[in-house]
Design goal:
five-stranded antiparallel β-sheet; 2 domains
């Protein structure tokens, strides 16, 4: 009986060694694929490639950040505030067919465009605005109201 027990123990150990060997070779094959990489590169070459890509990404990120900063500075000069006022300047015409349009940037600088409708035609005027005030010409009450409306909201 002792002999059979020893034989059984040896058989179990041999089977166990075979199972462990198969598992080891499967792990080794997976490790070899990992080390070689998908394109047959070594792990070192793959890591070096990743580091190069990381440096390029850092450089691109820095460039994009600089561009964004520049755009944020420039956007302050774009039209951001709009005010529109319709009115009737003459008693003999019906409806509010005349209007004033104020187009201002973040610094309240821009233009006001006025269109005065009469029976004889429509007259257009444009005036420069800086810091919410007329530069070269006096602003009418309607133009001041349109600028005030534009300053009170951001489109």
């Amino acid at each position: 009986m002792v002999f059979n027990f020893e034989l059984l123990a040896i058989a179990v150990v041999i089977v166990w060694l075979v199972v462990l060997s198969v598992m080891f070779w499967q792990s080794f094959a997976g490790y070899s694929d990992f080390v070689r990489g998908a394109k047959g590169k070594t792990l070192q070459a793959a890591l070096e490639s990743l580091l190069r890509d990381l440096e390029e990404t850092k450089k691109d990120t820095k460039e994009q950040s600089e561009r964004i900063t520049k755009l944020e500075e420039e956007e302050l000069l774009h039209i951001q505030k709009i005010g529109l006022l319709r009115f009737n300047p003459f008693k003999d015409t019906g409806g509010d067919q005349s209007f004033v349009l104020a187009l201002l940037d973040n610094n309240d600088t821009g233009i006001v465009i006025s269109a005065l409708y009469s029976r004889l035609g429509t007259r257009w005027y444009a005036k420069k605005v800086a810091e919410g005030k007329g530069l070269e010409h006096e602003l009418s009450d309607e133009e001041k109201k349109a600028i005030s409306e534009a300053r009170s909201r951001k489109e």
